[in-house]
User: Fold this.
Amino acid sequence: MYDVIIIGAGIVGCAVARALSRYQLDILVMEKGADVAVGATKANSGILHAGYDCAPGTLKATLNVRGLQLYKTLAQELGIPHRMNGSLVVSNEADTSAGLAKLRALYDQGIANGVTGLELLDATQTHALEPNLHPSVNGALRATTAGIISPYEAAIAFAENAATNGVRFLLETTVTSVCAADNEIGYVVYTDRHGAASAYHTRVVINAAGTESGVVANHLRGLTRPTAFPGSACDARHKDIPPVKIHPQRGQYYLLDNTQRDLISHTVFQLPTHKGKGVLIAPTVEGNVLLGPTAEAIDDNQRANDPAATATTRDGLAEALDKARLTLAHVPIGDRITAFAGVRAKHNGGDFIVEEMPEGFISAIGIDSPGLTAAPAIAERLAELALTHLARSERAGSPLSPPGEKFNDPVLKSNFINQREPITRLRDLPPDMQARLVATKSNDAEGMRPAPFDSPVYGSVVCRCETITQAEITEAMRRFAALQNPATASQPVAICDQLKKSFAAIPANLDAIKRRSRAQMGRCQGGFCTVRLVELISREHAIPEEAVTKNGQGSEIVQI
Ligand SMILES: Cc1cc2nc3c(=O)[nH]c(=O)nc-3n(C[C@H](O)[C@H](O)[C@H](O)COP(=O)(O)OP(=O)(O)OC[C@H]3O[C@@H](n4cnc5c(N)ncnc54)[C@H](O)[C@@H]3O)c2cc1C
Assistant:
């Protein structure tokens, strides 16, 4: 029996896994994608919002400000790339005083939310800070506490550190149903993995399924029965819980090459509208520039990682570009290197929902923007609810775990490791270090394990656009594998006999390597390095090249 099963390995699931990994608990994370950070977390603006644009008194406002504060320590501990570059909300309304009144209202809202570092700027001050703005910009609200972060690397960092501390990640594992357990202790989580059905018993479920958090929450109402387990205890004990509905909303972007790194230094927003924060111009931590996102309602049944939901459209990209042209004097669109879309998990109520309903079933619902910024604070709340439930049920005594047998209250680990090192990037090192690493023959240098074959691993550049070496690719593959096999993880206890298939680690895929190493993220978008990467993945995992995938089963790219 697990103490906690977390459904969904986006930024919220990974952050709460890391928060709970401080305690002596058996924790399993189930993710239907072929990596962590494959939903909304992989495709967003990457902004650490200051917190002025959430209505005062909302959970969004509170958790935005708290999350931003928590990242200060977390980013240091976990080596997450970020930069506190500040943000501007610019006005170019023809009626200058009407625009300034809207900026003033945002300023006041920020003060009410406890945001510091806010100042109102006139046209001259604004253009002095950002010379490439459109001449019509006539004022701005500056927030010096805002920043930018790599969203997927943040989730990967949380996940890696959680795994170091004993949390296991089950990838390509879809939760098909969750039911109250027969014996009234905890829940049974039913899964499908490559066609194999399994069931897991747990004291606490944390629902961090993003656009599917509504579907997962609705399982409990007893409406979905796990077909593979006809005699299961999937009753409708909780049928009176109000149903949850998520309305997905797509945002499309253009990404400009890092040759445009000096285009803008702050993140620049337009005045918000009823649809959201509007189209922004944002530098990324890697030196690229984002233009977008749009805000389009899509079919309610689409999910954050459905190809149809994340497809870009001619109209959507045209809208993003037209709006960007209101902010910048000149948009160097000829330097775009790709376009992409992300999907927000909008909920009718508008606010985040972080609640325990019913006991031991804890959900994060409607986590749209600023969910990335708020994630550490959402995780803090989710963890607190889980720990309180575990302590409460332990005190009440349970037939499965008599008081005192395992823990009286969840206990902190004495050997918790709070640090995680990012992958060493050759290109960022001083020349003498580069020379030393290039001279080594295997990943053994710097304490790494041997490379799959003998070659100058740091001297072999695989991705030319981003200067990523073979050593970095190897390290990315091994970190991916380590998520699924943490050294300290306890043995799984699944109810049905599918253990081998259910727990086998999946090999790294091209997108997983991209998010960890940046290979394929440059100007050629993998045109030159994909063949080499397929070869490296095949050799590292001892699988045929035809089995190497882009992003999990069904996306094999070498056809024979
Ligand atoms: C266009 C856009 C721009 C944004 N910009 C910002 C920004 O600049 N700053 C900011 O703070 N926030 C921003 N956000 C919001 C932020 O990206 C999200 O709030 C955050 O990523 C949500 O994380 P999550 O973990 O809740 O969801 P997700 O990242 O979607 O993760 C949920 C995971 O659950 C998995 N899952 C779902 N169902 C199941 C199942 N049945 N079984 C197993 N696994 C399942 C999914 O595969 C997915 O990986 C933006 C969002 C979008 C879309």
